[in-house]
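Entry 12.
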Amino acid sequence: MCTDTKGRIAEAVEQMLQTRPVCKITVQCVMEQAQMKRQSFYYHYQDIYSVLEWIVETQLCAPLQYDGAQAPGEWCLQALTLLREKQPLLRKISHALGQETMYRLTGKVIRPQLARLLPDPAAVDGATQSLALDMLCHAAFCTVDSLVARRTPLDAEAFMHQLQALFLTVQQI
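Predicted 3D structure (C-alpha cells):
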C-alpha cells in the first residue's frame, strides 16, 4: 500500500510533467490529479523534487543495478534503451534537479559498471584507481546527461558502437 501510494503520486507528477514545467507543479495539483489527500503527499515525500528523485531511483537506477553476471556491453545497451524510452521525462527531471543531484543518484549505478573495466585494483595503487574511476564516472555521466538533454531522440545503437570502441580502448590502457 505504501509503495502504491508513492507510485500514484509519482505517476501524477509524471503526467503533469507532460504539460507543464516543474516550477508550475504544486503539491495541491498533484494530489488532485492523484485523487488523494494532501497529507498523504507529505507522509511519503518532502517536496516535488523528492518525487522527481524517487522517479529517477525507481525508473532508471533500480532497473540498471549492478549484476556481475551481465556483460558490460549488455548492461550498456540496456541503459541506453531505457534512456531512449525515458528521454523526454529525464530531460525535464534532470533540468529541475540539476547535474549534482542527478550525478549523486546515478553515480551509484554507473560506478560499479565502470569499475570492472579498470585494471585489477591489486595491480594499481588505491589512490590512482580511485582517481581513474572518478574521472571515468564523471565523463560517462556528462556524456549521458548531454544525450538526455538533446531534443533529438537518442540513437542507442549508434551510441553503443561508440561506447564499445571506448571500452576496448580503456581495457587496453
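Annotation: The two ends are 50 Å apart (CA to CA). Helices lie at 2-17, 27-34, 38-44, 48-61, 72-97, 99-115, 126-149, 156-172.
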